[in-house]
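Predict the holo structure. Ligand: zinc ion.
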Amino acid sequence: MYAYQLSVLAAMYPKQTQRIKIGESVQGRAIYAFKLGTGKKEIYMDASTHAREHMTTNVLMKMIDTYTKAYTTQNKLYNYDVKKVLNTTSIWFVPMVNPDGVMLVQQGLKSVQEPYKQKVLKANDGSKNFARYKSNIRGVDLNRNYNVAWKTTSTSIKKPYYKAYKGPSAVSEPETKAMVSFVKKHSFKTYLAYHSSGQLQYWYYNQSVKQKKRDYYLVRKIYNVTKYNPVTSTGIANGSGAGQDWFVSTFKRPGITIEIAPYVGETTVPHKYWSSVWNKNKSVGLLAAKEAAGR
Ligand SMILES: [Zn+2]
């Protein structure tokens, strides 16, 4: 559904937008990136790396829809001059990094092709309720699979599981491969990774003092609209493998993990939080694009 919406927008506004396929999931589902803007500078935002956190896809899709309308009608939006912002900085959205996992959470085993049905059941301790499932269809937690302190990342999970298994090697999964090769082809000023638990911002990964100051400036701006508290420590104990940490350490630019909802335990975010989540996050893409224009 989201792929169709992106294709419609890209067809309607070919000068202002672009939809490209950046890779495929384990089960062959396309992973799409959507560009909005004509600006030479670029920022990058993604969502649904963790399957059960699929409300994050809705946040990016509504941003895409709302910003595209404002951009193409030249309206002001949330006090931003959208045309000026996006003519300077383009935003690349990847609204669903882990489509197999999201389909599993939403539709259960019927969305799964062989040979993964038994494997994914095993990774979920035999339960057919996949509401808690975070990993990709091979039971790899994509946010432990990036090549940043991967070797030293030690969790108690040593085999495919619904969460926290880092995979057989760094960037072993097609979903992380797609993101890494896409990001390497660009020169993104900023990376915002959308996740869903805790109403927090993870942003710190051993930055130099100067980088830390620059990055924290953006974090404070996001705090001003979301009230998500910054966490001044590395997000993941005992190593990393996280996309944000990979971006921060590789490119020396701000990477922020935005957790959109209160922690609700090991399950999807209840729909009752949607309107407050959207209201807090609706201007974040424009805010980040405008901030990137200055560097
Ligand atoms: Zn997450």
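The chain has one domain: 2-293. The first helix runs from residue 2 to 12.
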